[in-house]
Amino acid sequence: MKIGLVGRKIGMTRVYDANGKATAVTVIEAGGNTVLQVKNLESDGYCAVQVGFDSQKESRITKALAGHFKKAKSDPKKFLTEFRLPDEAKIDGDLNVSQFKAGEFVDVIGRSKGKGFQGVVKKHGFAGQPAAHGSKMHRRNGAVGNRSTPGRVWRNMGMPGHMGDDRVTVQNLRIVQVRPEENVLLVCGAVPGSTGSYVVIRPAKKKPDASGGKPE
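Predicted structure:
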């Protein structure tokens, strides 16, 4: 049963198939997914598995979290997340990359790179104002009002502001290679986030699996 994984984005490279065709891939290291808690309908109201990734020092966590990790007989983890499970599902041991196969499709969730405070041309793709010397407004957004009626700025008006550092999901990425001995997945295409950032890998919700069945 494919559940999901937490991993770390290593970077991008390319691999070649038997015909010499190059494919750009993102390398995701997904070893050490420790099961910390299995939730069920009786005690929690829903079925899920809590997974921890990337060990850290015990001195850097709260006492409540330290007790939680000791109960699970695990080292303190930096990143915790949950994967929902079908009813009556059973988990045997920790999660690893062998649950996926080459050719299957996954959704990858990450946090995009932060761009800081940006203007409307970079953030929203505005064309900008006239660029000649006589113009005083080259990259500004222009007027945002709408007369005395309604006497306010419309909602969702494109304005300068913070850009990036958002939760981003890229769907339907094909797995090119699975390397269990290295705990590595090679995923076709780009993955959100900077090198070294955490990503969540789950079975694709809108694509059938490699065997032609429906998404889980």
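Summary: The chain has three helices and eleven strands.
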